[in-house]
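Cross-check.
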Amino acid sequence: MDLTQGTEKEKIGRAKKTMLWFAMISMTMTFAGLTSAYVVSSSRPDWLKDFDLPPMLLWSTIAILISSVTIHMAKNAIQKGENKQGMFLLLTTMILGVAFVVFQLQGFSYMTNEFGYNFTGPTSNVVISFIYILVSLHMAHLFSGFIVLLVVVYNHYKQRYGNGQTLGLELGVMFWHFLDFLWVYLFLFFYFVR
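Predicted model, tokenized:
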């Protein structure tokens, strides 16, 4: 398919999707670099080999996976014209996103209270510092996801999605799925790479 063909609206839509793909690839490379540094650092003599992830991180993973399902269902409902169902599912996605953040913060607290490890200082460890950095960086990207989700909720409330006019919704869903995928990657990485 020739990307220069089609109406102006179709070209703009393809350009926006391409820009989002480039942004997601860039973010993926950032996290790949940091997780590679984690692997390289694991040969250090002060590396924690017997560290278990806080259980709250599993709960946050479950919350973010369910949010991926609810946002996908919201997109389908909105595209079918089921606006109330779509709004309910968008708001459910937002609540699950907030639950994800709460569980993440509880995980940080757990690492400090149960293990006595902090991000920096004499009670820090390189493993914990890596976890703090990667999780915090993901939460910063999730903050962007919340902004996108708020825009999608607002536009849906204003009934701007209809008659095939769902580009903003599609981009928002795509970015949210990416954030979910990124967290699942990080969770599995921390779980299996010691």
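Residues 8-41 form the longest helix (34 residues). Helices lie at 8-41, 56-79, 83-115, 126-157, 167-192. Passed to J.P. for a second look.
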